[in-house]
Amino acid sequence: MISTEVLFLKEIETKLLPKGATFSEQQNSVIFHNNTANIVAGPGSGKTTVLIAKCAMLLKENIGNSKGICLITHTNVAVDEIKSGLSKIGFNNIEYPNFLGTIQEFFNYFFGRKAFHIIFGDKNIRIMDDEEYRERFDHFFDRLKPNWYTNNNPNVKSKNPQLIINQDLTYDVISDANSTYREAFNDSIKHLLKFGIVTNKQCLELSAWYIKKHLSKIREALSNRFEYVLLDEAQDTNKFQYELLNSLFLDNIKFQRFGDPYQALYSIFDTKEDAWIPSEEVSYINKIEIAETSRFNENIANLVRNVCIEKYDSFRSVSSVNSFQPYFITYDDGLELKLKYKELISTLEEQSSEYKSSNKKDAILSAKHDDLMSLFEEYIVSNSKVKKSESGVKQIYSLILRIISKEIDLNLQQTEEKLNSLLENKKIIAKLIKDLITKDNIESTISSIILEIEKIKNDIIEPSKKEKIKEQLNSFKNEMESSRKNAIVEQEKEEFYIGTVHSVKGENHRSTLLVLNTVFSDWYGTYSYEILELLNNYLIGHYIDLENISNLQLKIETKNALKLAYVAFSRPTHLVAIGIHKDKLTEKLKEELIEFGWKEW
């Protein structure tokens, strides 16, 4: 007789997987594992789908129970994706005692807000993103800065302000701001705190203080509420967050961490260490691998194995995709590189209808924006507030939400909650947003938007502020139109995406070309390593364990180069290529590349 668990999993497979597909043995081992574990899921191994399936199984099992499931991820996009998957299975509302949200929401909801009210009293707490916070910071710093200070206001985040809570519940702020204006900088942060305005980092510091003060009681309360804790994209968790999560859940609740530790890019260009390293935890936390990829075949899987920061011999392809052998392209300048890449793509399209019919993009990547700007004259790091990844409707709605937020003095989340409660106003604003996008003459539309904001505020907006709002909306409309026209021009001019490796993390491509033109060095010129030099052995199949590299800086930069190559090489379904300047390619390296399976173009 088939168990109800197996029957439900078969139902999940019909909802989440392509017709006729089933979960693999490795995927099933994760879905049915019921203890603390590190789940190392390679690129294209179906990690998110497995996580959704596991969460659905647990939710089904816990129906009617007093304990729930806690699922923590890192972005709202990931939260929406998981909710969408659960909805397909029939779980439309994730309610108490369950929790599904970002890591920031988890700490803010359970600990940060409570700690804030203990220290700062009953005033409203407003947790702001970096851009919102920067605007408020500038308001105070402009009033407190020294008379001689004429530079741009300091970047708040880069000065690393820290909230220190004393035993008597008083507090202080320290920072890395220059001593000549540090007092004004720190006092500006204090003024914001007095008004209840905090960043997510400060909320995490408040959470840490609260957790440390009440750890044993908190652990007991959490174990009474949650049966399982599932952490998604564990490699993106910083050390501060990771240590706090471990203090709450390890040896207390079944705690499973999902992710790919070899894709931890956030630590590359600073001194931060990776927080989640499953290979260093195997003595006390079980490690389970999903090491079978369906994204590409062995031609690419072989490369990915060889540029991993740890030996990854278990990673293999189970894909029917006809990926090509990898190519290396020599070039003299950016124009030649693009032309050669375009010719290669056209040639391979003639050879493979599967490749030609793919609607995924072709990409050219490098490690840094500077590397791309030095190679392609037309490459510009966009400072535009118009985000290509979001629809025009969503972006204008976000802008209007920010305007309302300032007028009624609430943070964005609280403003959205208020707007959601005013259905009639929200419907009118939705129509006006549509008009703003579709109509050429938008003056009357903008006036109507301002009128609706006044209704929500229940007060008149000052004339000077009205003009500023009009200017913002007009500017955004013009910027959107300009962005749309530029996108059409770019599409006609370019047939592939150009960007950093960081910018494509989580994406799938048809083809990916990694340009090996990056130099890793410090400000003082004490060391300098070219990325080709660091990757040389790995590209020809001569794997060197990082632990066998005695020079510490060489070891660090080799690890960084490997992470970048691992992410870049694991994006495409069909083609991996590397670009090497013709002056950097020796005859010896050329022979070794060809011997390992690379083809020259």
TrEMBL record:
Cite the entry's keywords alphabetically. Answer: ATP-binding, Coiled coil, Helicase, Hydrolase, Nucleotide-binding
Question: What's a single GO MF annotation on this record?
Answer: ATP binding
**Which Gene Ontology biological process is one annotated for this entry?**
recombinational repair
The answer, when asked if Transcription regulation is one of the entry's keywords, is: no
Q: List residues of the UvrD-like helicase ATP-binding domain.
A: 20-318
Query: What GO terms fall under cellular component here?
Result: cytosol
Name one matching Pfam family. UvrD-helicase
Chain coiled-coil ranges: 405-432
Source superkingdom: Bacteria
Binding sites annotated in the UniProt record for ATP: A41, G42, P43, G44, S45, G46, K47, T48
Keyword Hydrolase attributed: yes
The family database entries (Gene3D superfamilies) matched by this protein are listed as:
1.10.10.160, P-loop containing nucleotide triphosphate hydrolases
Q: What is this protein called?
A: UvrD-like helicase ATP-binding domain-containing protein
Query: What is the protein's species of origin?
Result: Heyndrickxia coagulans
